[in-house]
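Quick question, first post here. What does this chain look like in 3D?
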Amino acid sequence: MQRRHFLKQTLTTAGLGAAGTAAAPFIATASADETITWDMVTSWPKNFPALGTGANEFARRVEALSHGRMRIRVHGAGELVPALEVFDAVSSGTAQMGHSASYYWRGKVPAAQFFTAVPYGMTTQETNAWLYYGGGQKLWDELYAEYNLKPFAVGNTTTQPAGWFKKEINSLEDLQGLKLRLPGLAGEAMNRIGVTTVNMPGSEIFTSMQTGALDAADWVSPYNDLAFGLHEVADYYYTSAWNEPSAVLEGTVNLDAWNKLPDDLKDVVTEAAHAANLSMISEFTFRNAQALEALVNEHGIKLRSFPEDVTQALAKASQEVIQEQVESDPASKKIHDSYRAFQQTVRPVTDTGEFAYLKARDKVTQG
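> Answer (accepted):
Ran it through. Tokens below.
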């Protein structure tokens, strides 16, 4: 699709403007002097750091790039629909847009999980390359079109720790029977090694840990975990990054609403999603550094890594879970084949580039 001339002129104004609250009704098609207003439902508490504010940032960019012709009203979890009903609400047209994570829908669309996080999968940079240049977005479009949705990457929480545990994990035996909040393919892998996993909105994690309904929980990363106060209900923070090496947040658009947009506003939504995605990655890199320092130095959290028998068991279980899903679901096979082929293509340049540099930098830092 050709970008409109006005878009090239206004991309530099993405930092201007503010998300509006105008109550103009949704209009199927619009001329230059009409305003389209959409509602976006999210899986996050209103204005929650990075996740909620990332949705706000996307809405702000849409209004700025469209010169006010398009406005998006952002609703927190529970305001219009519950946190884990975003997919259905947007698919049915209850709201024109949603902001969530695709692995929440594994019960409805098993293949959707590959568009959030894959255990031992690609890094954030590799994942974006697959979506933008390696055919991932096309496959995502095809999958979601069956549910009357158009998906976009509208954020990424980057590499995530393994989560919070009330007790120290010294062996695989210590995990047996634990109740853990962990969604997606990683949750299935944990189930295989003796853990009982559940999926629940982030807003319920603290209370569940406090009351003993959970023994452990994955949420996001230091910035968001600190915001929810998870350090107050667990002492051990496991940094073993196996479950979500990259975690894409999706923006879903009702396909009927999308098809009624003028082409220039489709461009606006696309470019705003791209910008919001990259912006969130940078924010998490900075905020996580601050939050991790606070967790360790101010709150006395104990950082740990899983022992070798746990990491080996998780690697084996992850491969089994993915393979079984691929064999049982044609859509999963098609998407995973593309994902894995792209990972194999980019791994040599990652290994000889960033990974090699980080090893070299570590020697200098230690010296």
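The longest strand covers residues 149-156.
The mean pLDDT is 92.
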